[in-house]
Design brief:
single chain, alpha/beta, two-stranded antiparallel ribbon, globular, NAD(P)_OxRdtase_dom_sf, Aldo/ket_reductase_CS, 3''-deamino-3''-oxonicotianamine reductase activity, AKR, oxidoreductase
């Protein structure tokens, strides 16, 4: 296996940029606060200190899920994002984007865009078909081979659900769902951390109930819970729970998702549009700023340079109390559910109703 080395011979050594002047999220109990510095001279993206030792995690990252998967477009988006100052790249075994992410990062090194491996924050995830104690470590090793890296900064359980072993895919057959050995799977995640090939471990799409189950058996608490989060699905109960347990929330679909653009509740929000017009900001920027002010990180997906740039221009201004009150009153609607992952036909012998509990 060829490992992406980020050799110092190619490094561009810089002094840290001056902290970008902004008012970050109000510090609350148990919640990470911005580290108050930029990653490099290229970046103006603040970082959160996450996990038991406070490892820096950029407030905004690039998501690489694409359906259908478009390799060249994703490669170009990763390179463009890195040029603009993004340093967090989010991928997963399911996305089929790990190889292209690794190649794009190697190209970024060759072109001098990235100074060292330590400058990057890479997240990947283990899919439901590998959510078995004996398959977690092999799945991560395969992801590392695809990425051409020796470690990921964050490794997540993609969903709190297990499916009969197979290659990552969806939709999945309902009859293939099997009881999940959460304790065994998490012990395997902890082993990934112990081996140093996952600097931090966490979860995705976990409700407060699922987090309570995990915390009861975990020796290493999850550093992160990546969930659907935006002004039209605010997850207030979950955010407060995670703050109390020192779990960093990371928002996916922060702009309402892209699968059905004509039914996007964020981009079609009259409230967000009104606030944006009054402030000279886009609806996307209002949504992302609101998420940042909750103390949450986020991964945003875009293939367009102007959108990628716009998505990180949210740190030198803030919402007003009146803005926040209006956003608090937006009707709530969850778009991403476990049902989206399953074939409509068939019957599951495993009760997965607690995976999709709607917590307001």
């Amino acid at each position: 296996m060829h490992i992406l080395n980020f050799s110092p011979a190619h490094a561009i050594y810089t002094t840290p940029a001056s902290p970008h002047k902004h008012r970050g999220p109000r510090k609350q109990r148990g919640m990470a606060s911005p580290a108050g510095r930029s990653c490099t001279r290229y970046s103006k993206i603040p970082e959160f200190l996450v996990g038991p030792i406070g490892q820096p995690m950029p407030a905004v990252g690039l998501g690489t899920a694409s359906h259908p998967f478009m390799e060249e477009e994703v490669r170009a988006a990763v390179l463009t994002a890195l040029e603009l100052g993004y340093r967090h790249i989010d991928t997963a075994a399911l996305y089929a984007s790990e190889r292209v992410v690794g190649k794009a990062m190697a190209e970024a090194v060759q072109r001098g865009i990235v100074a060292s491996r330590e400058e990057l924050f890479v997240t990947s995830k283990v899919w439901c078909t590998q959510c078995h104690p004996e398959l977690v470590l092999p799945s991560l090793k395969e992801s590392l081979q695809n990425l051409q890296m020796e470690y990921v900064d964050l490794y997540l359980i993609h969903w709190p659900m297990a499916v009969k072993p197979s290659k990552p895919h969806f939709p999945m057959k309902r009859e293939d769902i099997v009881p999940m050995d959460l304790s065994g799977v998490w012990k395997a995640m902890e082993e990934c951390h112990r081996l140093g090939i996952a600097k931090m471990i966490g979860v995705s799409n976990f409700t407060t109930k699922k987090l309570q189950e995990l915390l009861a058996i975990a020796k290493i608490s999850p550093a992160v819970n990546q969930v659907e989060l935006n002004p039209t699905w605010q997850q207030k109960k979950l955010i407060e729970f995670c703050k109390d347990k020192s779990i960093q929330v990371v928002a996916y679909s922060p702009l309402g998702g892209q699968r059905i653009p004509k039914m996007n509740p964020v981009r079609q929000s009259d409230v967000l549009e009104e606030i944006g017009k009054a402030r000279g900001k886009s609806v996307a920027q209002i949504s992302l700023r609101w998420i940042y002010e909750q103390g949450a990180s986020m991964v945003v997906k875009s293939l367009k340079r102007e959108r990628l740039k716009e998505n990180i221009e949210i740190f030198d201004w803030e919402l007003s109390d009146e803005d926040r009150l209006k956003i608090d009153q937006i009707p709530q609607r969850k778009l991403i559910t476990v049902q989206n992952l399953l074939c409509p036909e068939g019957i599951s012998s495993v009760d997965i109703s607690d995976v999709d509990v709607l917590e307001m």
